[in-house]
Amino acid sequence: MQIDTPYLMFLGDVPDHLAAKTAYGIADWRPDWCVGQLRLPGCAADLDIPDLTLAEAVERGCRTMVIGVVNAGGVLPDHWVAEIVAALEAGLDVASGLHVRLGSVPAIAAAAKARGRRLHDVRHTTESFATGKGTKRPGLRLLTVGTDCSVGKKYTVLALERGMRARGLDAEFRATGQTGVFISGRGAAIDAVVADFISGAVEWISPAADPNHWDLIEGQGSLFHPSFAGVSLGLLHGAQPDAFVVCHEPTRTTMRGVEHPLPTIAAVIDMTIRLGRLTNPGIRPVGIAVNTQALSEDEARRTLDAIAAEHDLPATDPVRFGVDGLVDRLVAEFPAAGASA
After folding, report:
1. How far is the C-alpha of 116 from the C-alpha of 299, rounded, in Å?
2. Are the C-beta atoms of residues 281 and 323 closer than 8 Å to each other?
3. pLDDT digits over 194-231, tens only?
4. By its UniProt entry, which PANTHER family does this protein fall under (predicted)?
5. CB-based burial of residue 141 (10 Å sphere; 0-12 exposed, 13-18 middle, 19+ buried)?
6. pTM of model > 0.85
7. In whole angstroms, what is the distance from residue 82 CA to residue 47 CA?
8. Residues 157, 164: Cα–Cα separation, whole Å
9. H-type helices in the chain, by residue range?
């Protein structure tokens, strides 16, 4: 699908910034596409871009209103419908990463048809996927895995893409979620793929490539999360990663949205290796990415040093401190690919 830019980012009335992580991701990695934001009363998220009315957004050249929110189940709240209809009537297309299809809401479908506007459901694809085969394919692959959902898996692979390319490595981000598809312009939201075809969809996202090419595959959920482990496992088997980076948020005690305790980094490493060996016996960890946003700089550095020492792996906050240590480890572990730099 081709989504016209620039965007007006719709944040609704979400209760925190994590509930608007799609919007934050687009604003962080494609800031030139984000002209302004539209928030409803009570919204606790703020992209630090101008608050615009629909008329102001159109006047400033916006082409598409992006529903930049996520929620459990990917539902569209009823009280947002009027604002979406108003956007269509103002002359904007509307794009959404929610599970609910925009066109399934009669008022939205009618407004889009009446105004000749387009509706984009990024979470849904028209592609038909095969079941995964688990056959080793050429090329190198890195997958981010997590101790929880919403811990920085997408940001880590995007930062790695930038850092690896700066070192001359052949590396490309592969999107597996709706935000990643907005950012990259391609990919598939695998949590909307029928379960039997998840691993096959990931094989399609990351096909056979040059032996020294790195596909950097965006992780989803956590193997330990009772809500999302099924998606995480299918993604792991389809990705067949040669390397993986564990992503972690150190201030959490329970996983997001449930009462289950956060697993340890060591447990995630062990489980990822044991399950990942089904499709790639050579799978190995190459680093730990820690979201230190809630920590001071001194606390963050102490935390990273302790984690690196405990696991004998490089540890960094990719956004705050960069990814040089992770790239160094990749080059050391896969010298042939590094030699192509």
Report:
1. 53
2. no
3. 999 999 999 999 999 999 999 999 999 999 999 999 99
4. DUF1611 DOMAIN-CONTAINING PROTEIN, GLL3100 PROTEIN
5. buried
6. no
7. 23
8. 10
9. 21-29, 54-59, 81-89, 106-115, 153-166, 178-184, 198-205, 229-239, 265-276, 297-311, 318-321, 324-333, 335-339
